[in-house]
Design goal:
The structure is a homodimer. The first copy, chain A, is of the alpha+beta class. Chain A contains six helices and 26 strands. In chain A, helix 1 runs antiparallel to helix 2 and helix 3 packs across helix 4. In chain A, a hairpin with a 6-residue loop joins strand 24 and strand 25. In chain A, 18% of the residues lie in helices and 43% in strands. Chain A has a nine-stranded antiparallel sheet. Chain A has an eight-stranded antiparallel sheet with strand order 6-2-3-4-17-16-15-10. In chain A, strands 5-1-7-8-9 form a five-stranded antiparallel sheet. Chain A has three domains: 114 residues, DNA Polymerase III, Chain A, domain 2 (Roll); 121 residues, DNA Polymerase III, Chain A, domain 2; 113 residues, Roll (DNA Polymerase III, Chain A, domain 2). Chain A is elongated. At the A-B interface, helix 2, strand 9, helix 5 and strand 21 of A face helix 2, strand 9, helix 5 and strand 21 of B. Chains A, B: Belongs to the beta sliding clamp family.
């Protein structure tokens, strides 16, 4: 294998796949990245077997070939290389690569590429495409609600449903729930009903967007694939049935308020400073023409008045301050509608002028006096 | 106490003194900052008794007064405040302050200002002034060599000597040594020979510079003071005699080389990637017209050739890679002179065209085969 490329091309390809690699994987070869040169293309692959990321870039090839190099060294080394043409050279049968730059060279021991696990081939399945930016923005609106509790794997994923031409993304950790709908341009051949690991989707968010180019999603029996021109992300699906969630969304409310998202968010974050070392809940009081955010602790007290339009009955309710901040940040709207059915029932947050998103937040118990 | 100011003024004053405060000080009041309003000035003080920082800013005063507020809450709170006029209000005899911004307010419990320790008054002593930028740049050139080993306190400080109108700053951790000289405009009334804690000088570096304004240094029996228009830094001196250091600086050399600082620094840093998980030493080979930086480990090997002018005998020597990087970074010069008297003797690094700085670095043992 022998090819020449630039520092920025290498850094891009390695940076793209890096998050899929565990530098201290129990299977040593998986702590490396696979480099494969075919024609004028270098394909770099990183994988932890659950999640695989592949990035293809153009290089100047002298000989085709492949090798696996430890991510721990190659990633930092590339970052420190000078901005000159960089040549990778692996002798046939060798498991080390010499990297030549200017008058200097470094040699890194790697692994035999034949030992690298075979990656899932793109399965047949339902497929659809949408603009990368749109997907990224929608994923951000639900990913905050994904659970990190590995004992209930189904909640560590996002439900992706396509019915007709309607895409729906749902996440919940049972304390909050986020639902995003989107109208696709085309209708996949089959319906989709799959649960994708949150970790995978965080990578999709990191690696896509900043472009109106499309991303294609193919959903098979056990795997989902995200494909762009240079990028291929493959992930195992989470097995199991996603619990019914629609019935927990309140259909009515007794109090509704319209607030400026930024004002209520900033008030919540200041209040959360006073509770960060104790029970992290903050009171929200809906009264005529305003929502008051307040709490009293050993540190002191805070009282923030955010003006807004309040319909219905006055109401006091407590929320976990961090959960409320995250829900507010995910709204993606300057104005929000907060709908309540009582002090002990879930609140519904919606962007003020957007029908396709809502999130739900359970109230918290008030602190003991 | 009642005054009004802006978020940026508060953030500046609190950010300035913050590093002198231990948020979890065993003496609770020292986990706070002292706010004192006299006339139209707010003076904020933070201290851990060893190091005290005071910052004075202009505010709109309604009533004079003072209070101590916990740094843990006040610093973050100010960061989250909106950009509107901010009023602090403490009732007489109260140990809490209400902060009023727009239609909102927060109240923070504090401590009685009378309980706050008395700070060292500026002592009589030798004093001199120099531009802030000059002081900051010189301190950066020696601080990297300060020891962090508290069992030998004298090495955790920087020796500051003024003889006639010559200022000299010296630091060593016994593995490396840095000496910076500077010609003052004026001659202090007395000679100075004091050891100032490295922690104090790191704060001086952080808080000064970016300006040609002068800073005044007053050195008393037990304390040193750094004074600018808005800032007062007071620090205890380290007791004890600084060991004689001049005798360890080699007067002659058998090999001398001139190198581009950036090239040898980058080569050293790339080589250090290969040794970061083992014995962290790298070989430097001085040969005709170049210095080769190389090392071989279980990870692989590296060989970097940095061209330069070499006078004298060829020579191989090993250095701790991190120490070499730090010494090279401190040079502040595009070109350097590296002087060697043998593989087992200290190397001298100097800026190529600057007489007033040198650093010394002991060689390391080669790794075992």
């Amino acid at each position: 294998m022998k090819f020449t490329t630039s520092k920025s091309t290498l850094a891009y390809a390695i940076g793209t796949v890096q998050k899929a690699v565990s530098p201290r994987s129990p299977l040593p070869i998986l702590s490396g990245i696979l480099l494969e040169v075919h024609g004028d293309q270098l394909t770099v692959t990183g994988s932890d077997t659950e999640l695989t990321i592949q990035c293809t870039v153009n290089v100047e090839t002298e000989n085709e070939g492949s090798i696996v190099l430890p991510i721990r060294y190659i990633a930092d080394l590339v970052r420190y290389l000078p901005d000159v043409p960089i040549q990778f050279h692996t002798l046939p049968e060798s498991t080390s690569t010499t990297i030549i730059y200017g008058t200097s060279q470094v040699n890194i021991h790697g692994f035999e590429p034949e030992q690298y696990p075979r990656l899932p081939a793109v399965e047949k399945g339902a497929s659809f495409s949408l603009p990368q930016d749109a997907l990224r923005d929608m994923l951000r609106q639900v990913l905050f609600a994904v659970s990190t509790d590995e004992t209930r794997p189904i909640f560590t994923g996002v439900l992706m449903q396509v019915t007709g031409s309607q895409l729906r993304l749902v996440a919940t950790d049972t304390y909050r729930l986020a639902v995003r709908r989107f109208q696709l341009d085309q209708e996949p051949e089959q319906q989709i009903n799959a649960v994708i690991p949150g970790k995978t989707l965080n990578e999709v968010v990191r690696l896509t967007g900043g472009t109106e180019d499309e991303i294609t999603i193919i959903c098979g029996e056990n795997h989902v694939f995200f494909l762009t021109g240079t990028l291929k992300i493959a992930s195992r699906l989470i097995a199991g049935q996603y619990p019914p969630y629609e019935q927990v969304i309140p259909r009515e409310f007794i109090t509704r308020t319209r607030l400026a998202t930024r004002e209520i968010l900033e008030a919540t974050e200041r209040a959360s400073l006073l509770v960060r070392e104790g029970y992290p809940v903050v009171q929200f009081t809906l009264q005529e023409n305003s929502c008051v955010v307040s709490v009293q602790t050993q540190v002191g007290w805070i009282r923030e008045e955010v003006s807004g339009v309040v319909e219905g009955e006055p109401l006091e309710i407590w929320f976990n301050a961090r959960y409320m901040s995250e829900s507010l940040r995910a709204l993606g709207s300057e104005e929000l509608s907060l709908e309540l059915t009582g002090s002990l029932s879930a609140a519904v947050l919606r962007p003020a002028r957007e029908e396709n998103y809502l999130s739900l937040l359970l109230p918290a118990k008030p602190p003991k006096e």
